[in-house]
């Protein structure tokens, strides 16, 4: 028995926010003082570091579970399965359903339960639950689903990654330009075909690293101190990722028995273009090699960082030929990898 992705789907919001749309923002330092550079300089430097030109925001009235439902329906249709035969719905997110302009996330019932309801699934043995694991949540959901299938507890699982980060950002924080919205979903099934999930690796670093990403007050000191936003220690995250993600990827690859030159693509969390490039360089350096050209497809330039949605939406776009000069085929070996709040890291070696 192998464990394979038999269907994928995604939902990319329709509202495009360019870097120029931040020209009227009042960016402040952490202490509330005015930032010394013009917004034109800020956005230019931002683009040079992150590679982000545009990002997608969910339209008013559309929430995380709504996007997830569309992505899930598309994955179910792509897999050509009856949703009533699903054993698990595993939904990775971090903030629940957040209405535009609201200050409270809604996770009651769980987003997995909401999505199961939206899909009209009646089978009570289809177990629906949420995963809060930072940006690596979808990859972790895939690892959990793999374990369920290996243990004989499931045959078919729906794994979703969806988020509306645009609704939990401080408009006075330059980091707010990083974040975006989106949803991706996959069907993972027991299969008689070759390939599938070959190995996986997960780790949580919480001693000194737990609060590298956190909820904090607005940089505008006149804002309500009880309303908090996603904040991060960017330099610490960058150094942490470069030190730890390549080693986790290597451990996963070594466990699979696959050689590094057999990898066709690396699908890494779309967090920051320069950081992702540096991670790939360090990963290949562990094997005394340099990365092949085109090894790392990117969607961050137009889609931004949608947290748990970046890897499944990237996979769906790549599989369906929607990324210029990038393609994958049956039998190809790919490496999924992610890093995020927790601080958590994970990876999967997978053969199509």
Question: In summary, what is this structure?
Answer:
By secondary structure, the protein is of the alpha/beta class. The protein has helices at residues 39-50, 64-79, 111-119, 137-150, 234-256, 273-285, 300-303, 310-319, and strands spanning 2-11, 15-18, 54-57, 88-92, 127-131, 156-164, 181-191, 196-204, 213-217, 228-232, 263-268, 333-340, 344-351.
Task: Name the average pLDDT.
Answer: 95
Q: What fraction of the residues are assigned to beta strands by DSSP?
A: 25-35%
**Helix amount:** 25-40%
Q: What is the tally of helical segments?
A: 8
Strand order of the largest sheet: 1-7-6-4-5
Tertiary shape: globular
| Helix-and-strand structural type | alpha/beta
Poorly predicted tracts of residues: none
Largest sheet: 5 strands, mixed
Description of the structure:
- This protein is α/β, with parallel strands linked by helices and 352 residues long.
- It is 29% helix and 25% strand.
- It has a five-stranded mixed β-sheet with strand order 1-7-6-4-5, sandwiched between helices.
- Strand 4, helix 3 (111-119) and strand 5 form a beta-alpha-beta unit.
- It is globular, with a radius of gyration of 20 Å.
